[in-house]
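Z., the sequence and structure:
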Amino acid sequence: MFCLRRRNATVLYKKIAVKYLRDLDTFEYVRCEHCGLTVSKTLYEMSHEDWSEFNYNSHKDLYFYGVLKFEEINPKYSTRHDAQANMFVELLHNGVFKYDWRTIDYGACDGALANQINGKLEKVWLKKFDAYIEPLDENYLTQEEVTPKTFDFLLSTSVFEHLFGNKGEVDNIINLIKPDGIMGLHTLICEEVPQDPEWFYLLAVPVHCTLWTNKAMSIVFQKNNFKHCAYNVEAQMWLFFRNEEAWQKLNEVKEKLSGTWILKDDFIDYWKVKPYRK
């Protein structure tokens, strides 16, 4: 589905040592010759049981036991969160998004971004869900509440790089959105993966199994019938629209909004050249 046919892929890396792993110290990566999507062959070939356990233990150790210091290895982490939270608050205040929408932060982890947005709004607008983290408060949705085609807005930040592109995981998440819904997306987009084991996306979080290109993400955009795209440079956030009313409103108020906005009736391929963002 995402051009991962092995006969059309070339091996990018072998014997990449990654820290913070107990059982794995070598990863092999392959790159699709059609769309450039780069995947961890090592992780893609794990069994579902091993992958689930690997994900759970990695998140537990990296996020909650202090192994991973986001501010040290990615100093723009807080700046980006601030810009993202401010962006959503402005979209709500200017009528692009609605306060009564059913929303979900899918893969919310510790809920830092959703909590920041809700705190600025002084109400719970964005609900949270994470398949690998035990709910930390009452604003996390249960698995039973996360049902297809029921969300007006779905937020996905730093999640798509954790999804297998050939097992329907991306489609399953997007399928949670209503036919006239909107998705907010933050993930790495890069045309060429640095062959550097010290690079954040290879070293810091070893569960980064899929690294997207503009062409690969454009395929996702078109396949899932999104009609319009907006990108906020400071927030490093794409918005994929099926909701025509919201799209028209964004066009009307964009000059009032903070930051640099780019609007287009197709996926916006903003990240094309090095240095790629961290």
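The first strand starts at residue 9 and ends at 13. Residues 1-20 have pLDDT under 50 and may be disordered.

Let me know what you think.
H.
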